[in-house]
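Q: What would this complex look like in 3D?
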Amino acid sequence: MTTQTCLSESAIVTRDKRSYWTFTGGAFAHATTMMIRHKRIVLAALVTLAPVIIPLLLPLLTKSEFSEDGIKIFKFLMEQIYLKAMAPLLALFFGCMLIGEDIEQQTIPYIVTRPIPRSALVLGRFGAYVFMSAVILLTSVVLTFAACTAVGKLEFCRETIVLLAHYAGVGVASLLGYGALTTFLGAISRKPIIIGVLFMFGWQRLATIVPGAVDFLTIEKYLNALLPAMATERQNTVVKLALIEFQKKQLIIDASKAGLSLLIIVAALIVATCLVIRYREYSQSRTAAG
Amino acid sequence: MEATIIEARGLSKWFGEIMAVNNLEVAIGAGVTGLLGPNGAGKTTFIRLALGLYGPSRGYIHLFGQPPRNNLDVLNRIGYCPEIDRFYENMSGFEFVRWMNRLSGMDNKTAKRRAEEACELVKMTARMRDPIDTYSRGMRQRIKVAQALANDPDLLFLDEPMSGLDPEAREDIFSLIRHLGEAGRTVIFSTHVLHEVERVTSNVLLLHNGCILAQGDIRQIRGLIDEHPHAITVTCGDPHGLSQQFISDDATLSLEFSEGAVTLRTRDPNTAYQHLNELILNGAFAIEAMTCPDDNLQSVFEYLIK
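A: Here is my prediction, written as structure tokens for the whole assembly.
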């Protein structure tokens, strides 16, 4: 080996030039690259794009009035499929891996021994998740919208474009909310996907039928409040179960308060993730270590 | 440059009921220091405490006069080659080093250039564009060292860097570590293989069961063990005649003969060396070689852990 032991003389200069946003940009670019190269992106894209064919298939499968009403189909798909299933799934696909994969694959020591501010690491990676999942989700939403126009009663006009933009905005909001949650779970738990599934598809369903104001402890509550006013019926106060039927009192919040609440939840979860990375001791092999 | 780079006082770390390191008092300056001990001695825990990956349960550890945990100024000056063989597998060695540079705050252009330089330093230029999952263990080890060096650190932690390396790669890494030390860098080199440390430094920190057994120059440590006999092997034409000169000395414990040589074990090495010097100067015996087989980490380590 040569006697060269130092890298170029710019080393010290480079250290002094490093800014917070350079770190954030590095974390964003790294996380984006990792997601693009991950095999699960293909699965995520296929699953998310699957609803596009529903409006095209429905008229062939059924002759009901619903199957010929493009606007109803679009609203139904947005509210029942994209916001309640696809956005949570994308968050589970990518949000959990932002920090959790480094812990699982034991590459976290490389990351946390870099002089990168923990907040820059989390913000950069979260930004990459929002960017990637939004591209996938919005592509599917736009294609679904286009497919619904082919069915009828959904014209390509200013009013429906606004409706599309509104739903797209709520879709991004749902990615933010669920993504912040799964990012936090990935940093704090070894089983983020299981906990995430239980929360999103277990607790959030349960909270809508349990008496009391427990639905405020869900993300869905705030997302529902952001939906367009002309959307299909919500705030159904009669809960029908197999054995009982009861009146559930629901407290309704307006869109601005819901949006603000959602932002606070996202910020709190991001801050909590930063604190977990800052204070957690990542010790994958304590007993084996020398 | 700071005289003491790493300072620990009363440093302890326990995990539940397991005491990983216990009341360490350490002061390490520039140059290469071998962190030596068997598996489970507390070497990796000590390194992880120094890197700030763990917080101390008691006591403190400072790097460059500051606590390392979540201290970006300290992290900016260190490089770390972990023991564990883990990477982002779906990329090349060059990309891995480049991305680590980006996470160290370098812009893309600088990160790329420095990754190329680091790969060259560990002789991986020819294969650096190949996927990591096609690398041999030795190549992966080189890439781990490259990512640790890419930030041009003042303080480098190498946790078992020779693990899985072929002889040529070992020589390269030995040479690199020696030169880093000569260049005034601080290198903490952990291993449980004693002769590896001897190849790069005489400055050691011996750990066993989380405690320090000895710290400092291996010869000074050897001197502290005054009850442990010191061995001197002298090769000469008349080993039996030479042995007569020492047999009446009270400090002499034993004399062992081999072909053309005698190994003397003494409790008073200074007097023995002085006596040997006089014999050489007098020309009484044609002394061809004089070695100290005990000046070897293996014997010191075995003695210390008894």
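A: To summarize the key features: Chain B touches chain A through 68 residues (CB under 8 Å). Chain B has two domains: 4-223, 225-305.
Q: Very helpful, thank you.
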